[in-house]
Amino acid sequence: MTDDIFSFNEMCRRENDVVLQRGMNFGLGKNYSVILMSRASNAPYRDRIEDGGITIIYEGHDMPRTKENSNPKSIDQQGSTPKGTLTQNGKFYKAAHDYKAKKRPAELVKVYEKIRPGIWTYNGVFKLTDSWKEKDDTRNVFMFKLEATEDSVLTNSNNPIDLKHRRIIPTWVKREVWKRDKGKCIKCGSTNNLHFDHVIPFSKGGASITPDNVQILCARHNIGKSDNIE
Ligand SMILES: [Zn+2]
Fold it and tell me: Domain check: are 110 and 215 in the same one?
């Protein structure tokens, strides 16, 4: 569920035991891809959340470090290998352009975000709607545009997607709440199956942009809470 909190191992188990060593995993699931993002100040890529929390702009990834290429940050990111097979950048780029050319529906992408070392949160399902190359200070990099959509699109992907925008909880809010609630359910102190809960749900007018409206609950207390609301 969106806004669930995991350790790295739990996150991998959730994705069918695939070890998510790579940040970009095109076509990892049967009908979706997976990307990992990090907005820490020392993160290797410049990912950002825009439009008040409904869009992620995700930077493509560097070529692997090799003997010939000891500093991947100094060379252009590549869409294909020297042998001509598409890199992860190339696969996502092609999917975005095929979507724009109406040759296919948008690729669905599950996004996980690192909020602290070893602590990850699920940002939900996004549609890959655009990709371009741009120049950073010294070289060309790939950029990808991901628009937030409902988790339910993954289970009924034959239906046209109704883009009822939801909001991503900003990274700084999650970090702040994690620290304040000490990484535990505020009701019972459990450290398992945690979730960032909106005190007042977004659908009922609650804001996700301040730590005041976000708290950590375990699965049991989160389910108990939604029973009370219905
Ligand atoms: Zn609890």
Answer: no
Are 153 and 205 in a shared domain? no
CATH of the domain at 94: 2.30.280.10
Per-residue HEC secondary structure of 117-172 comes to CCEEEEEEEEEEEEEEEEECCCCEEEEEEEEECCHHHHCCCCCCCCCCCCCCCCHH
Domain ranges, residue 20: 5-168
What are the residues whose beta carbon lies below 5 Å from ligand 1 (ion)? 185, 187-188, 190, 218, 221
Give 149 Cα–ligand 1 centroid separation in angstroms: 28
Write the pLDDT tens digit of every residue in 102-121: 999 999 999 999 999 999 99
Q: Specify the pTM.
A: 0.89
